Amino acid sequence: MVSEVRRKILNWYVRFDLFAGLMSGYETVLAREWFYVCQQYHRQQSQLHPDNIDCKIERAIADHRLTALDMSTLFAKLSRGAITIEEFLEQNLDISERITAWRHTLDPELTDSNYAVTSFAGARERDPNDIVDPYTPGGLYHGPLWTMNHLFIDWCAVSLMHKHQTAFILQQQPPEELGALALEQLRLFEAIEYWPGSPSGAVLAAQANLGMASLFLPKDERHITWCRKKLATIESMGYIYPPTLRTKLSELWSIPELHHWWLPNDQGYPPIIRSIRSFIEDRTMTPKDRPGEDLRDIKAIFQKVSLDDSPRASPESVGSVDMLYSQTSTPTTGFVQGRTPPYGVDHRNGGRTMLDAHSMHEQNAAFWDTYGAEEAPAFYSPPGRR
Length: 386
What we know:
Blueprint: H1 4-24, H2 32-48, H3 53-79, H4 85-104, H5 146-169, H6 177-194, H7 202-205, H8 210-214, H9 221-236, H10 243-253, H11 271-280, H12 290-296, H13 299-302, E1 344-346, E2 353-355, H14 357-360, H15 365-371
Helix pairs in contact: 1-3, 2-3, 3-4, 3-5, 4-5, 5-6, 10-15
């Protein structure tokens, strides 16, 4: 953790790992120890440098990610029958309280109104058909608090996923606030897109949850059109969405032409993007050999990185945080290669009836169909896709 380069690499992968884990319903590849050590490091730094705003932001990020990890792990344990429904309910209540507490107990400096954007002078005129108000005064932060905008988007996404999956497991109606959480993510996204002071490329960094949030919006023409325009904007910038996202949204919105492009008559579809989409088709296919697997699993990085910068562990130390993978590329976090977890729990019967993994993972079907197995490492493969 003393190397800034390694911290940057770890932070990048942790975010991807959490996103894939939450979408799949499986545990993360990195063990909890990685997240915990990151949290403790940033807490220590914030104590050593109490006036450093960056240290406070990094601590807030680390706290949030540890909560998100524990949430993902809890749902995964229930999915494979590793805990009872009673244990789940108790631990899930704690997760719920931690998610809420994180937002309401932030250091006041992280929401300092002196860094709130109060003017969008120079921005484009607001579209009367917009589904959010991106120009809400004080709804965006600038300067040293810019990162908080992205962090609040992530918090909304985690809170949405927690409420959605909890309702499914308990066989309850989805909470009404799911739509509000989705809209808040999109408001922040569009505020970042339109504010003239946004750093170059900021909108691409904010788009990660765009597809997921779209699933929780009303299925009327106004909301669908807004989403189609935003998805086209992002892809025209060079970020290529997987074909499964088009397929899922095409079915959800009953618009077959989405398989080809987001907007009618190829609006905003540059020739270079067509070439890129064609080029990456082979990249998104299942790797055909071992080197392809290792590349996709980013094995070359984490096989050599340890939290304390100590020498790389020996094969005998597999399972510790010093060496994420064994020589056979088997993850050390409890995944069973080649098959899915064998059991789930039927919560409609007090958790006493065991279901197969396919039934239990129905709660994640929309997300798997949306983001596709090609977007995650092989060990995230949902039921029936290996």
